[in-house]
Amino acid sequence: MFNDFLLSYSTLETSGVENSLFETLRLFDLLSSGALSRTNLSLLDEEKIDLRDLIRKRKQGIPWEYILGQAHFMGHLFFCSPDTLIPTDETKLLVDAALESINKKERGENDLTLIEIGTGCGNIAVTLALHTRYTKILASDISPAAVNVAQRNVYKFNLQHRIALLSGDLFSPFQSLGYEGKIDFVVCNPPYIPTGSLSRQSGKLVVHEPRVALDGGPCGIDFYHRLITESLPMLKPDGMLFFEIGERQEKPVIRLLENNGGYYDIEFFTDNSNVRAIRAVKKRI
Predict the structure, then answer these.
(1) Digit-coded pLDDT (tens) for 248-257
(2) What is the radius of gyration, based on Cα positions, of the chain?
(3) Contacts of 150 (CB under 8 A, 6+ apart)
(4) pTM for this structure?
(5) What structural domains does the chain harbor?
(6) Which of 111, 159, 168, 233 is the most exposed place for a label (fewest CB within 10 A)?
């Protein structure tokens, strides 16, 4: 939708149409049956938002989501902050893939447990809980500040009985809690941007996001190695690992899975012909 809006605006602008932004808004208002004209902007007054201050911060390159402290993901509005990544549409592919398997398994079992690694603002954990019935979710993040933001979202959606949040590196928060070999699903949107690429992101939105949630090491695959290795002792036999990957990273990630030897039935999930998520199943012993 947003890309369509930008394309329409650009086409009108280059065609010499006067007031091209206004004309684009009119077009999309008509196409949406008047949804734009019915939009309620009273929140600007209720929250005492200073538009001049918002614009000043945006001119500094700060993303709107951090300025307003909230972001959209899969139809819901989440609290977010510079301590968390901004949810992106690409992650919907990962969530949909996990939900398909979870919902199938819930038909036969009413006591499932899922771990989400690197929860950030909690948008994945909350969305999974909203679209499932019986699955208990344990979510962790290495950043205590991010966990605090995620906790706000858990309470916002009244899911504190379904989601437990912990702070620590990868699976370390769970290792003393007796979950080894008892987890049905592990879900993760890991850091996968190569370190060198991050250093060349000057002026882009990612410079405002937490580096620990983005930096995947020199080749962008450091975190995958740990995730693939450390998920195995936590998962049940036939338990499933789901994780997002960067563009054109499927070949090195598949090599990591194959070299590990503990997984089978590896499946790709594509977005515009690019593999952006992977599922792997733990082998039966």
Answers:
(1) 888 999 999 9
(2) 21
(3) 84, 119, 120, 121, 122, 125, 139, 141, 165
(4) 0.84
(5) 2-61 (no CATH), 91-282 (3.40.50.150)
(6) 111
